[in-house]
Write a structure and sequence with these properties.
By secondary structure, this protein is α+β, with helices and mostly antiparallel strands. It is built from six helices and 13 strands. 27% of the residues lie in helices and 31% in strands.
């Protein structure tokens, strides 16, 4: 766990690579780590870069101490994900947060069609944030409008780049993939648009972030391991101060 706590001075801070659990918000992880520092008697600012939806898992980078000033530099990095799209059905949130609707058959789809479309998706796109997202519109989060049944049609678009869209396995109605995308890309929207382009609909059934720039999920720790490392650091720090 030496990649978790490597700071030489208490106020210098570090980047913490954490494997975000399923059903945790990114802020849940920040709050857990911040409270751990506080309960251990260590003063720390804690922030995060690259929000993950609650139903997604994988790499989340937290910054502590002075490293929080470098979060902006992390936000511009490309990201790599793996996951699955379920075809032949849709959801309002474009993921598993909301109920399925619009079921239809996918028996006519071929592997060639699916693989060819994935290749066509590579490149530059204009993308709207989904209604069930934390993007802002007129001073409110889009999800706040969505919960009231309001659909904002003029959501601000932004350019994203899909560097690689690799279909790794097809077990209809599931299509498993690896996506390498630019900053700000909503994978849920890509899944929705992929299903729409096939004429059957689709939504994001699972998602795991594998990397942010050169930071890898394989170098991350669980929340529990990170908490344990912080508590160990606190014990060591307090023992040193008592000498």
């Amino acid at each position: 766990m030496d990649n978790t706590i490597t700071e030489s001075r208490q106020d210098e801070g570090d980047f913490l690579l954490i494997d975000k659990p399923f059903d945790w918000t990114s802020f849940d992880v920040v709050a857990k780590i911040r409270n751990t520092y506080k309960s251990a008697g260590l003063k720390r600012k804690v922030g995060h870069s690259g929000t993950l939806d609650p139903k997604a898992t994988g790499l989340l980078i937290l910054a502590t101490g002075r490293k929080t000033k470098e979060i902006v530099g992390l936000e511009v990095l490309d990201k790599v994900y793996d996951g699955a799209i379920k075809l032949g059905v849709m959801t309002e949130s474009h993921d598993i947060e909301t109920s399925e609707y619009g079921h239809c058959s996918v028996d006519h789809l071929t592997e060639m069609q699916i693989n060819s479309l994935a290749t066509e998706f590579e490149g530059r796109h204009l993308q709207q944030p989904p209604m069930h997202s934390a993007a802002w519109h007129n001073g409110k989060r889009l999800y706040a409008h969505a919960r009231k049944g309001v659909v904002i049609k003029d959501r601000k678009t932004k350019e994203i780049v899909i560097h690689r869209f690799e279909v790794t396995r097809i077990e209809l109605p599931m299509v498993y993939f690896v996506l390498h995308v630019s900053k700000g890309a909503y994978i849920r929207v890509i899944a929705h648009e992929f299903g729409a382009a096939l004429g059957v609909g689709g939504y994001l059934a699972s998602l795991r972030r594998l990397s942010i720039g050169n930071y890898q999920l394989s170098s991350s720790n669980t929340v529990s391991e990170t908490v344990e490392a912080i508590l160990h650091q606190a014990t060591t720090t307090h023992q040193g101060e008592g000498r």
